[in-house]
Amino acid sequence: MITTHGLARSFHVDGRRIDAVKGVDIDVSAGMGVTLLGPNGAGKTTSFRMLTTLLRPTAGAATVAGRDLLTDPTGVRRRIGYVAQGGGTCGEHTVREELETQGQLYGLSRAKARLRSGEVAEQLELNGLENRLVKTLSGGQRRRLDVALGLVHSPLVVFLDEPTAGLDPQSRAALWKRVHMLRAELGTTVFVTTHYLEEADDFSDQVLIIDHGKIIAEGTPEALKAKVAGHRVEVTVPIEMVQTTAAIAARHPQSTRPSIIGNTVRFQVPMGDAMIPHMIRALDYANIPTLSIQVVQPTLDDIFLLLTGRSIRENPST
Amino acid sequence: MLRDAALIFRGELILTRRSWAPMALSIAQPLTWLLLFTPLMVGLMKETPDSPTGGAWMVMTPALTIYLVLMNSAFTGYKLLGDLSNGVLERMRVTPASRTALLLGYAMMTVVQTVIQSMMVFLLAWALFHLPITFAGTVLTLGVGALLTFTLTACSITLALVAKSEPIFTAIISTGLLPLTLLSGILMPITPGLAPQWLYILSRCNPLTWIADLTRATFTGNYAFEPVVIGGGILLAITVMSLWWGTRTFNREIL
Q1: What structural domains does chain A harbor?
Q2: How far is the alpha carbon of B50 from chain A, nearest alpha carbon, in Å?
Q3: Is this complex scored with an ipTM above 0.90?
Q4: pLDDT at B55 over 80
Q5: Which of A47, A230, B139, B206 has the highest CB neighbour count under 10 A?
Q6: Contacts of B93 in chain A (CB under 8 A)
């Protein structure tokens, strides 16, 4: 659905050349939920603006929704939806006016635009607000309207740039729930940028981690975390048995980096779930009563930390 | 393309309907010129060598169309700067709507506004001062006004898009508008007998002077070669040029 080869973009600011995106290769299949994750200034928005025809790449090629980005930008525009980070609504228009006009700008007939406006308003819980002026909506409602505007023409791919930035946790959860449902119902490919790690983790079939304009890791959240950091297993035992437990853990050929904190033994393994039965059997054999044993999933931030030595959270997006 | 332009125009129309006070008030300015300035011109023109024919009211009334055109179109750029900062323009630029349609849509509202206001000025001048206005003259003058509004609005919007910042745009407009207005001779016709030669030549270099002459010619039904053919030619030429410039700028990326 989206394929890019060496997509790059540089800007000239005050005579200096800034390479915002330095050769990005992306391959996104139809119907997937993909997240572009990275700290502020990593090149997320620039990548999005290139893929949505707003910026011309300085190098590389791309196909979006089956159309060539460089030779057929109008074809791309017809097939995609884009929700910018700051939205794009006029406060003095009503919700219905915005939705219907947007639908018609995408070539829908008046009747069809009206029908679709009703549908997306329903899907994004905006029903009942159709005749309200946009300026009277709450932040969450306005953001849902932004998303609705990106979907009114039933695009094959929708690009959501920081869809939940600035929303309270409840509105964020509600918005994601809706986006999940839309993907399930319509099979729309959803490409998002976010700096909320938990959201990226929950939402994505595929995560692309971007830093300094380059994709530094990609895969499913699980594979990514397993590949880069594996799992952390934490075994809690009575305090007098903690050393023995640590020795047992260290004997396992796949365990690395064992450490003891209080009466808990921690170590890294490639696949935590597969390790648990072995561990329980070994502890039983040694007559150690296990108080608890758990596999701790590394977060996406752990991966970023491992790859770059920095945390994504050090640079919260504004 | 026309459908897309009409959609954007409809949006603008809704906005104007919701807050019509500024538009209603903007009619006050040309009326002020008509009522407070034209009586002065009557006396002045008697003393002025080779002033235009037809008397002060017939000179001033059509020229106010140009004045309205200038005021309305110059400031349309602000509307675009607003849409640029709130993201509406970007949202539209991701739709398949043609770039020319975006330009047309924005310009159409200003055209309608100018035509309505000009008509009110004409009607008032006719009702109060019994100007010998003809139907053909009115329609032609309004047509010239509409085309010029479209052209200058396109320029203003494009200029706003190039400037991208309100202070820069304001500086350009406020610096450019006054000399353009004065040199066009819409308030006080610039004739060889009245103005020094350099000023006269300068005013002849201003395309608006020719178009102001064109409106006076159409308004009075004096279809002489110079104002009609040359003025009309200049009007068409700047219309085509502004459309080309605007579409080209809208097509380029906006950072």
Answers
A1: 2-225 (3.40.50.300), 231-297 (3.30.70.100)
A2: 52
A3: no
A4: no
A5: A47
A6: 53-54
